[in-house]
């Protein structure tokens, strides 16, 4: 097994290789505006660090969000392209699940990432491996009472300490954690645990067609 994991659903452009036993190479950079520019060089760097070629990959793992439209589609399009070129499966996982897994927490908690517009993407977990609610997008103040007393992991929690007083790291997504989670699920024979490699946006993109848009048709 050689899993190539990528995630661009958050400001972190992150890539990792996992051989079924452990992460053998990982690299990433936090830059919310350069997902398209950074992703492929990061893939090349990780492969070079591991001393492997792309054709050694047996499956691709990709974070499907939730996340902003532009960044998220970079990782998904790249993962699907690799899958088609290599003829290997592409496994989707919720980006929040990667952060949850990286936290290592054993009791109930939540994960929250920055959704901009003074909102967070969030979900609840029974432990680091088990999500117990669907991902959602809300204002921190609107969910603070519901999550009272729980640790909250991720950049969204750290941005709003008034709403999430027990905010914790990791702050940014790790493709290594996402790959490790995927490897566990594959080893356990849990194919139903994976999602289709389709974007989980939760809301419409910021870019909109202007109102009163006039369609010009040739005479």
Question: Can you describe this structure in just a few lines?
Answer:
The chain is α/β, with parallel strands linked by helices. It is 30% helix and 25% strand. The model has no long low-confidence stretch (mean pLDDT 93).
Q: State which percent range the strand residues make up.
A: 25-35%
Q: Characterize the biggest β-sheet.
A: 6 strands, mixed
Helical content (DSSP H or I, runs of 4+) = 25-40%
Decide which structural class fits the backbone: alpha/beta
- The ordered H/E elements are EEEHEHEHEEEEHEHEH
The number of distinct β-strands equals 11
| Poorly predicted tracts of residues | none
Number of helices: 6
Shape: globular
Q: Compute the CA-based radius of gyration.
A: 18 Å
Domain Gcp-like: 32-144
InterPro entries: ATPase_NBD, Gcp-like_dom, T6A_TsaB
Protein name: tRNA (Adenosine(37)-N6)-threonylcarbamoyltransferase complex dimerization subunit type 1 TsaB
Protein architecture, described:
The chain is built from 6 helices and 11 strands. With 219 residues, it is of the alpha/beta class. Strands 6, 7, 8, 9, 10 and 11 form a 6-stranded mixed beta sheet that branches. The protein has a 5-stranded mixed beta sheet with strand order 3-2-1-4-5, sandwiched between helices. α3 (95-103) crosses α6 (175-187). The longest helix has 18 residues, at 69-86. It is globular. Residues 32-144 form the Gcp-like domain.
């Amino acid at each position: 097994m050689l899993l190539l994991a990528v995630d661009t659903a958050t400001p972190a452009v992150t890539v990792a290789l996992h051989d079924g036993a452990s992460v053998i190479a990982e690299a990433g950079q936090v830059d919310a505006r350069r997902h398209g520019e950074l992703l492929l060089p990061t893939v090349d760097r990780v492969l070079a660090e591991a001393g492997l070629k792309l054709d050694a990959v047996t499956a691709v793992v990709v974070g499907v969000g939730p996340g902003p439209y532009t960044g998220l589609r970079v990782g998904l399009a790249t993962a699907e392209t690799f899958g088609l070129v290599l003829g290997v499966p592409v496994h989707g996982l919720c980006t929040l699940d990667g952060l949850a897994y990286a936290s290592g927490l054993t009791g109930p908690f939540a994960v929250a990432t920055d959704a901009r517009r003074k909102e967070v993407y969030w979900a609840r977990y029974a432990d680091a491996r088990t999500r117990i609610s669907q991902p959602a997008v809300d204002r921190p103040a609107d969910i603070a009472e519901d999550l009272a007393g729980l640790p909250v992991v991720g950049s969204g929690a750290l941005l709003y300490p008034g709403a999430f007083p027990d905010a914790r790291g990791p702050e940014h997504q790790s493709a290594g954690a996402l790959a490790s989670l995927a490897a566990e699920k594959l080893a356990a024979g849990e194919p139903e645990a994976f999602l289709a490699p389709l974007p989980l946006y939760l809301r419409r993109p910021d870019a909109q067609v202007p109102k009163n848009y006039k369609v010009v048709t040739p005479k």
